[in-house]
Structures are given as C-alpha cells and as structure tokens.
Amino acid sequence: MTGPERRREDRAMDVGFIGNGEMADAIMERLRQAGHRLHHDRHGGSAFRDRAGACDVVMMLLPDSRAVEAALFADYGSGDNGFGDGGFAAALAPGALVIDLSCIPPAEASANAARLADLGVLLVDAPVPPGPAVAPIITLRGSDAACARAEPLLRLFTNGVVRAADRKSDDPDGLHRLLRLMAFDGPAEPMLSAS
User: Fold this and answer.
1) Distance between CA 38 and CA 24 in Å, rounded?
2) Phi, psi (rounded to 5 degrees) for 190
3) In this predicted model, what pLDDT tens digit does every residue of 4-23 receive, in sequence order?
4) In the Cβ-directed half-sphere of 144, how many Cα atoms lie within 13 Å?
5) How do strand 14-19 and strand 37-41 relate by DSSP bridges?
6) pTM given for the model
7) Cα–Cα separations (whole angstroms), residue 172 to 164, 167, 177
8) How far apart (Å, rounded) are the C-alpha atoms in residues 38 and 60?
C-alpha cells in the first residue's frame, strides 16, 4: 500500500476503547505498539463522554447488547439538546468511526448503526468471540467506507478480516452463488441405463 492510503493507515490516531479484561488489554497493547493514543474507559457512558469528542475511532468490547446501548446512548433523547448526559455517541465528531467488537445480534448492531448515522458517525460491527485470545478472523458488517477505515486497525490484532454477506441481497447466505460455482458448465449428460 502506498500514497495517501498508506499515510492514513500509519497516522497515529486517538482511539477510545470501552471495555476491560484480558482480551481488551491485549488489543489495547497492540494499538499502543502501533503508536495510537489510547483513551480507555471500562464502561463508557458519561465518564467517557468528555474524551469521546477527541477520538478518531472508538472501539467497544462489552459483554452484551444492553451494555453497548448504555455506553452509546444512555439517556439518549432527553435533555435540552435532545441528548442525555449518559452515552458518548452525542459527543463524537461527525465522521468519527465506532468499531463494535462486542458479540451482539446483527439486527441490534444495525439499529445502533442507524442511530449513529443520524449523528454523522459510522459504525462497523466486528464481533470478537469471547476467550483468552483474539480470534484469528474477524467478520465485518458495515458500509464499505466504514469497513475500509476499520480494517487497518483490526489487522493490528487479528490474522484476517472478511466482510459479511449483504443480508439485503436476494442470496443472503451465498447459497445460490455457491451452487452456481459448483455447477457444471453445460447440461448434465444423460445417464445410460444398463441393458
């Protein structure tokens, strides 16, 4: 990779990290080794809100959907400006990227992405299975632009990154595509019957 793409990947960024535990520590260590400035908070929410505005990217590694929603949007919709004092989403600068490493249902991740899009923020759903070590392959869901921005950071602590199939397509599981690839190029030869 050369030119502007390489410079963007190599540029030290302010990366927020919400979560704790052995895996979180390992990921944050890789980010630090790559020269990124870390802003860590165990749970997110109002405690992280003041720092969120300075972050280019925020990664979350939380135990469940409820923890993710609380970190992003706690009290969302209340207050004078339409945002409460709890979640950090409202403090993110337009164009910021959120990478959710938490294992939550894709439908809930999509709902979070839609709410963040209203704020001009991108979200990539990149679930990392629980365990003592980072998964060798991470599957991404999100827009092409968001995934392209997330991949260089994710590659710092994983062996591979793949894009999830577009669930809106007429072949959501890729089954028809697979069958087409496996099919013969022409009509099948008629079977000869024994005489």
Assistant:
1) 12
2) -65, 145
3) 433 344 589 999 999 999 89
4) 0
5) parallel
6) 0.75
7) 10, 5, 10
8) 13
